[in-house]
Amino acid sequence: MIPAMPFAILGLVVLGGPTEAPIPEPPAIAEFKRRDLDNDGMLSREEYVKPSLGSQWEQPAQQESVLYDLDGDGMLSPVEFGRTPAGSADAATMFDLLDANEDRVLDLQEFANRHPPGYEDAVKLEFAHFDADGSGQVDREEFLTRGKVVAGEFVKQFSGRDEDGDGRISREEYVRPNIGTQWEAAAKQEAVFYDLDADGFLTAAEYALTPPATSSRAMRFALADRNQNGSLDRTELLNVHADVDVPVVGAWFLRYDRNGDRAISAAEWNREGWESDPVFDPVVAQVEKGVAAFREFLVEFDQDRDGKLDVRQWPAERIKATLPNLADIPPSAWDRDGNGEVTEEEARSLLEVAWGVRRLSGEFYRRPTGQVLNWDHIRKLDKNSDGHLSREEFIESHEAGREQDIEIFEQIDANGDGTATFAELTAAHHFVYDALLVFSLYDSNADGLIDQTELDANPREWEKRLTPFLIAAFDEDGDGRMDLREFRLTPLVNPYADWYSLRPDVNYDGRLSWQEFYNQQSPEMIALYREFFRRFDLDDDGSLAPNEFEFRIDLEKVADEIAFAVQDRDGNGQITFDEIFNDPKPQGQDAKQAEAYQLRLIRAEESFLAGDADGDSALSLTEYRDARSSPTAAAMLGPTTAMSSESDEGMSWPIMGFLAVDALVLIGFGFWFLRGSRSKP
Questions:
Q1: What mean pLDDT do residues 537-563 have?
Q2: 665: helix, coil or strand?
Q3: Smaller CB count within 10 Å for the chain: N or C?
């Protein structure tokens, strides 16, 4: 017998409660009962065909009795009958027929009764489409609404191409509908490209990716979830986007993963507008922390309760204790309108400027979606420092080549007036740094963390000065790696500040003080610079040593002990020739450069041997001091240079700083990185 309960409750489910009048039976159920002559709850093929005997519909009915017998048992169940032309069950009726345990939701097994055996992959994709909330079950509302689009059409398409009914589409089956048409060649390429496991067949999951497939986002989720654990890792996401660059997919993964658990749930996947959703920004979080502190100041110090702080009674000590990165900012800088009082709105504006979220003039450096303006690069192109780029400035200083530079500038200069304003520069993608993409570029093993090996693997030329110092300074949990939040606090992905030009040791003490480190005009970015200075200062002594941050030292002017410590890279109390000479060997075929390099090498070796009094192939501090004061040794060495510059021609940097005149040595962990000529992205 047909279970009575689903039919009895159908009216309650649809109409929302009991009614006094009898609820008519759904037409599909009534017709099933009329045909079920022996009342066994199943229709034999004879019972299905009997109403059509002797009519023009008899032969079609015979065919239907076989076609819709999905499990091939010679009988039609209520579900199978509901799919026939005679049954034509509406969605509500079909839901009740499928809900075998009458719990008002469908699990995958119940849902699968809609389709014949052999289409498990297709059924999973269809189920995922119906399961809008990713709960692993399909409720009545989802079944009635989601079933109107995509899913049924997808299964129909898939089974239509699967001519032999083996539950997969061969390359021949995929191409066949396009044979003899202009699409044949493209179809052949697609049959190979979307065969992700290269087994010569397209599963339902693989077919869902193809251009002709009518598939939903939910279906694609089911496709990607190969281990069927209800979430996607980055490798599974890559399988869905086989035609997209790996780092780009990595950045997408980070945007999908709203809760940061390094997995994409069905709810995160199905979220509309994920591309433009804000992502957590640790720099902006510092602004919000400051605003919250200011509100506490108002409670504590706003005596007349007017929502303002009087600059004459400024809580400097409380600010220093609570917001130490802002301790150097005078009250007048907080008072944006100069009326002697500071509102919460003014405090927020000051905090955003101090943390580098926006300029003093109000324009934003950062986007909520994770992009940051590469203002430092723009500043270097802006020769007259007016905050804009003229056509001439851009073409003269940009390094893509004149014709391409002209084309790029025309794209940036939206109104075509020959000047790229800050707004136009911000809107264009050419000067935008995507922090999530940069993270994915470094995170080569896709574990959501960046270690020193990954930092060292392939840094761009302008990043080499920073990468040796980042883990020590920004790894907050001490695991030797940086997650996305830690990474986004580094200078590497905050290029609107000047991190790439070497700061000089002005007082020749071999250390970099805060005054030497901060090269902006207060209050611009002062909190951001303070944060970085504090982090790089590993020994917390209030200054940066060469092994904490790279800066420029004039070795001729510093004390012998400082110069020796700088050159002694391994800190063993001796300087070898390799430590003191690391002039990069020319890589090209330029004979003049090669000859000049050999000459520098010979002179350096001669000078080193002259200073090595005891002949142990190393210089002690005493030998080093004597060599520095020896006119003979200095004359033997002579000026030595290496090519490095911000222009194509290059500029000279003396190498052997301990003897050469006016030697400027670039240091960082005791070794030098010479600046390359590539432009920043």
A1: 90
A2: strand
A3: N
What is the Cα–Cα distance from 33 to 78, expressed in whole angstroms?
9
- Give the helix/strand (H/E) hosting 433: strand 432-434
What amino acid occupies position 31?
Answer: E
Lowest mean pLDDT of 15-29, 389-403, 470-484, name the range: 15-29
Contacts of 102 (CB under 8 A, 6+ apart): 3, 5, 6, 9
- The answer to whether the CB of 226 falls within 8 A of the CB of 250 is no
Name the helix (H) or strand (E) containing 643.
strand 642-644
What are the tokens at 445? 């093993």
Buried b (16+ CB within 10 A) or exposed e, 504-523: ebeebebbbbeebbbeeeeb
**Which helix (DSSP H) or strand (DSSP E) does residue 390 occupy?**
strand 389-390
Q: Name the strand (E) or helix (H) holding 44.
A: strand 43-44
Number of residues written out for the chain? 681
- The arithmetic mean of pLDDT across residues 159-178, rounded, is 88
**Per the structure block, which two tokens stand in for 92?**
């509500």
Nearest in space to 260 (alpha carbons), one of 282, 228, 239: 282
Cα(127)–Cα(111) distance, rounded to whole angstroms? 7
Alpha-carbon distance of 175 to 58, in angstroms, equals: 36
| Residue 653 phi, psi dihedral angles, 5° rounding | -125, 115
pTM for this one?
0.65
Q: Which amino acid is at 256?
A: Y
Better-predicted residue by pLDDT, 177 or 404? 177
Residue whose structure tokens are 């500029």: 651
> Which H or E run includes 642?
strand 642-644
Residue type, 274: W
